[in-house]
């Protein structure tokens, strides 16, 4: 009896709190997107660099920052991080320098973006203005912006991800690209369990870098996220496979497909639920090899922290996408 009462109380507390906290979170997310958009469009109006490049840079840096422990957490709404010494100048010995004149004189990139007389590394307006001014010196066409980005990051992958992000923001015309979808329809007959890190049954000594979703041959495979299709074609192990990089700079690898959706091509922008192929059993041999194992979708996820990329267990994400699809299905009824 006592136990039941506690359960009831817990349920009551959960129910009475959940809607409010959800609402608060949604509003604060909307406000954050709005503040970011204001900063990007303001920079576009002064530099003529399209807003979606600032959004692309900011989002790439946010993803890097969140994957690293050696970079402080962001204080404002922007994710852009500039190393202090780069900000104040390599010759500058005053590590707390905020004077725009001495910073510029000593080769620092830090600028005063809001006219308060200080170039502050922790001020969103100063940070975005600094990046904008840096890029503007290279020019404002697509090619020039890419050259500027290359000089800024000195890492081709960083440039690629920023440009992909920018294309996505331009395409959708908004900042909120956080939706999801489970890779196979819930009504299909499928099963999966957590197998990340297991020894691989086929093909080599590496651990199993993914979750296998077993389903019938030809069951539709959909994109789970907003992203750009980076890779599509045959791989000796993965068979017909697809690689998608999402807006959070996470790489999704889908393998052993029966084939690809009609018209799908590398560089294409995808969104949650979009058909990309079918469950198959391709792989482990030259192009066309199939049937060496039962049909399943191999789902792998990789994180990039600006320096290197590593595999992580997709199982918890798959569970959460599955749950969210179930909720969507119920609310539709
Ligand atoms: Zn697998």
Automatic annotation (TrEMBL):
Residues 207-305 form the M23ase beta-sheet core domain. It comes from the Bacteria. Transmembrane segments: none annotated. Coiled coil: none annotated. Gene3D superfamilies: Glucose Permease (Domain IIA) (2.70.70.10). Residues 1-18 form the signal peptide. Keywords: Signal. GO terms for molecular function: metalloendopeptidase activity. Pfam families: Peptidase_M23. This is Peptidase M23. It comes from Priestia koreensis.
């Amino acid at each position: 009896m006592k136990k039941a009462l506690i359960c009831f109380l817990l349920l009551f507390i959960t129910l009475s709190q959940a809607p409010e906290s959800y609402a608060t979170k949604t509003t604060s997310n909307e406000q954050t997107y709005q503040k970011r958009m204001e900063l990007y469009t303001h920079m576009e109006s002064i530099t003529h660099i399209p807003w979606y490049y600032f959004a692309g840079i900011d989002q790439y840096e946010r993803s890097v920052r969140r994957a690293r422990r050696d970079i402080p957490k962001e204080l404002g709404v922007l994710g852009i991080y500039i190393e202090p010494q780069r900000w104040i100048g390599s010759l500058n010995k005053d590590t707390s320098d905020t004077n725009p004149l001495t910073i510029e004189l000593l080769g620092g990139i830090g600028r005063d973006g809001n006219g308060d007389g200080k170039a502050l590394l922790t001020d969103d307006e100063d940070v975005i203005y600094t990046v904008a001014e840096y890029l503007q010196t290279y020019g404002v066409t697509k090619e020039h912006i890419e050259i500027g980005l290359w000089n800024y990051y000195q890492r081709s992958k960083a440039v690629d991800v920023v440009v992909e992000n920018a294309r996505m923001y331009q395409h959708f015309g908004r900042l909120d690209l956080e939706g999801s979808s489970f890779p196979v329809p819930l009504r299909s007959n499928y099963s999966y369990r957590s197998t990340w890190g297991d020894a691989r049954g086929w093909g080599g000594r590496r651990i199993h870098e993914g979750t296998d979703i077993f389903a019938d041959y030809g069951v539709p495979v959909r994109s789970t996220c907003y992203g750009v299709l980076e890779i599509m074609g045959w791989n000796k192990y993965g068979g017909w496979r697809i690689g998608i990089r999402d807006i959070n700079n996470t790489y999704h690898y889908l393998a052993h497909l029966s084939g690809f959706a009609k018209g799908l091509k590398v560089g294409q922008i995808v969104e949650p639920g979009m058909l990309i192929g079918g469950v198959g059993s391709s792989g482990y041999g030259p192009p066309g090899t199939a049937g060496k194992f039962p049909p399943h979708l191999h789902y792998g996820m990789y994180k990039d922290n600006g320096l290197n990329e590593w595999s992580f267990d997709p199982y918890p994400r798959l569970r959460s996408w599955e749950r969210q699809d179930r909720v969507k299905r119920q609310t539709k009824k």
